[in-house]
Amino acid sequence: MPTKLSIKELESGFATIKGLELLVGKIVEEEWDEIAGPTPYPSITDLRVWDQHLLKRYEPFYSPFCDMCCLCTFGKCDLTKGKKGSCGIDIRSQQGKIVLIACLMGAACHATHARHILDYLIEKKGRDYPIHLGEEIELEAPLIRLVAGIKPKKLGDLEEVLDYIERQITHLLSATATGQEESYIDFESKALHAGMVDNVAMEVADIAQISALRFPKGDPDAPLVDLGMGIIDKSKPVILCVGHNVAPGSEIINYLEQSGIYGSVEVAGICCTAHDLTRYSTGAKIVGPLSRQLIFVRSGVADVMVLDEECIRTDIIDEAKKVGTRVIATTDQVCAGLPDMTKTPIEFVVKELVLGNTPAVLIHDSAKAGEVAVKVALEVAPNRRARIVSDEQEILSAVLRCRDCGRCRRNCPIDLPINEAVYAAREKNFDLLAQIYDRCLNCGRCESDCPEHIPIVSVIRVTAMEKIRNEKYKIRSGRGPIKDTEIRNVGRAIVMGEIPGVIAFVGCANYPNGNKELVEMADEFAKRRYIVVASGCSAMDIARYKDEDGQTLYEKYAGDFDAGCILNTGSCVSNAHIIGAAVKIANIFAKRRLRGNFEEIADYILNRIGAVAIAWGAQHQKAAAIATGANRLGIPVILGPQGVKFRRAYIGRSDKKENWMVYNVKTGKKVYAGPAPEHLLYVAETKEEAIVTAARLVMRPNDTSKGRMIKLSHYIDLHQKLYGIIPDDLHLFVRTEADLPVTMKDQLLKILKEKGWEPVEIPDPTLLERQIVKGE
Amino acid sequence: MSATPWQVGDIPGPKQAHILRLEMFPKIVKTLKRPLIVVGSRKDAFEDGDIANYLVMLAKLINSPLVVSPSLFKNFMKFKDAKVICMGIEDLVNRLKEKDWKGFDDRGNYDSVLFIGGIYYFQSLMLSTLKHFAPHLKTFSLDRFYHPNAEFSFENMSKERWVQEFKGVVEIIKSSFS
């Protein structure tokens, strides 16, 4: 950002100066005539008042995972029973601090990824390479425009956005140190700030790579690509990419293409780098989400594994070595104690890897890593069978050592009855193990505490071999952003409530009962003509199930941003487009100004756009950051039961009428708008609870009666179907009789009468006093 | 099995639950002035069909409503003579931690909460919330897993022993009322 120095008039013995203006720093060509709002590049306190609005209504709810504070040398400090730590902190603030740290870890991951990919792309294409997301997308960067207040035109313009993000992360991290922030509410405000910059970082990364790497540009018909552990052609050399940064993977494909052998080598990925590989080239394949990492690597199918950054198991190199898979790490985020061969001649590195003298190396050069990966894979693949020592009988015989001590179950994050399954396998009954396979997170914690050293994950893999072979699915490749034209088509229907809501399935694969529940949820909402969107590991897991016609949901439903469709935006950083879609609606449909205008847009989304995210398997700190950023913009998020371990929710109190007052923009009067949305961050215990809660959280004060009627119809129907009764809180969501579903009106009026219900005004809602236009 | 957390890593800190024993219940029940039973979503806790019947019997004996996690609510609808409430557990716990909450009958907050049938890790953290932020409440875990974040919890035990133990609790309370 340039700094402006002005001297109106100066007289000195040296000179007389009048009307001098100096700009120091980078000058951005200004071709954007939108008037700037109050908070371009907001500091960590600029949006504090907005945060306080949110946090007053959605009070932080803490579930301490640990009673102790162990962050400094005064500790450990026991914070139970209202006790304070040596620094004076209490459990509430300590939890706020931990939540902020988690959000910062997530934001830092996305910011680092964004910096890495941007540096890589600038080196390849230059700073002036245009940001271009296709002919139907003029609003290319809703979050950057909103937060930074700039309209990026070239890759180089994104650098200053990242400079800002990195500065915010540093300042926020500083506030977590001993002797800094003390208030839990301010820790939460800072966490919301971290979440916001996280979301912007994701947008930087994705619009840069979409523009420069020819990814689909908001294409609803993005190609269907292969996904699953059974889709790898083992007769070919196999290169497996793990992580999130597509640079090395894209260079593998480049080298294969240049060498004329693309197609004769399998290039596959695990986690989000897999999404981006298929966005780069439809010939690439997705093995699956993070939860497939250990089990697939142990199969030994990969000849070479290329690691970039994020979501990489810390023991995966050891696991790869056990099955002879060669490893190339490529970023400064995962050096793993490996020898740095970035500057070593390629032929020497290849030889070292092929011979196994150095089975794992570090190469900080994506193009070089790509070439080495291909050359090594071609040489080691013919010997793959010989190097896989896996003997099915040997693995299975390990179960005979089981003495049913139960340590495996008691180490399982989701309490799976592993001991019963392994013990049953002693008698050659593998049915229980097969059931475990469907739900297992493949974390391996069970076997690490097994006193008999039974390789439980491998046992599960071997007994599920037939299932694994048949894991062949289709997923629509990540389409990236939502088109402006799509927003124009559906914006009104969403804001008025006539499309019942946008449901986003996001986050990791840490599910309580396997991925099938995720598929069932997505199907339920798509059938009901909600707009269903997905990203990251959730988008993959939605594909990992076929219906009775042998189709995945991506084959069954269209990929438009429209009612009754299911679309995949892409990798973790493509979450930016889901959040960005809500911002786009405020701008394109409602003509609200974006530029540095965060509060107004967040207020608009909170009160008018029925979007809800379900992070059913949230696990990584990035999920905490993404969700918290969405929350600051007024988008509620539902977590699966494991999400309780994030330790904090934002829960509303529907029984406190005073919490749900809004201004009516047109009259300036404060009116009761009902608990809509009731929560900002809520942990649901089961799939059924998540579905019904989502149907409730899409309600917004601005819904028209027709829209509210549609939303209530689904809420009541789902409540009856899944809980067995009409919702007890119905009276809180009915403003006038016109809100009631026609076919049930008499029955519902009777219930409302028993509750003492009376009609209330439907406001033009806002939480911001400055939005009142009365008298204008 | 002993009083170590069911999930081995679930060690919260120095304050951990006292172990519940059958013989303690006649005394405990006298301290429950305004109890609330919270039923989690774990279907397998009710595999033995009698457990639900005994639970409802317990609710009636101690004059407690049953708040049932929504996905199991259908299973409890048949108990017409019990006060059964359908509510998300996190929403409920958020209210319970407020000392002045009016309760489901507008007569004020409860003094003790008895958890049963929750997903272990989820219930553990709900109990943690109450341990830290609801000093006005006594919390009990009636599951077959030791929950260190409760104030009182059964120790870890087999399904079979737990079924016997739980039924025994209800019987002993019943006899203490007769």
Which terms would index this structure?
heterodimer, A: 776 residues, alpha/beta, Rossmann fold, six-stranded parallel beta sheet, 29 helices, B: 178 residues, 6 helices
Could you characterize the architecture of this molecule?
- The complex is a heterodimer of chains A (776) and B (178).
- Chain A is α/β, with parallel strands linked by helices.
- Chain A is built from 29 helices and 23 strands.
- Among the domains of chain A are: 159 residues, Rossmann fold, CATH 3.40.50.2030; 78 residues, no CATH class.
- A six-stranded parallel sheet of chain A has the order 9-8-7-10-11-12, sandwiched between helices. A six-stranded parallel sheet of chain A has the order 16-15-14-17-18-22, sandwiched between helices.
- In chain A, β4 and β5 form a beta hairpin.
- Chain A is globular.
- The two termini of chain A are 36 Å apart.
- Chain B has 178 residues and is of the alpha/beta class.
- Chain B has a single domain, classed as Rossmann fold.
- Helices cover 37% and strands 13% of the residues of chain B.
- Chain B has a seven-stranded parallel sheet with strand order 1-7-6-5-2-3-4.
- In chain B, α2 packs parallel to α6.
- Chain B is globular, with a radius of gyration of 15 Å.
- The chains are: A alpha/beta (776), B alpha/beta (178).
- Chains A and B meet through β3, α14 and α27 of A and α4 and α5 of B.
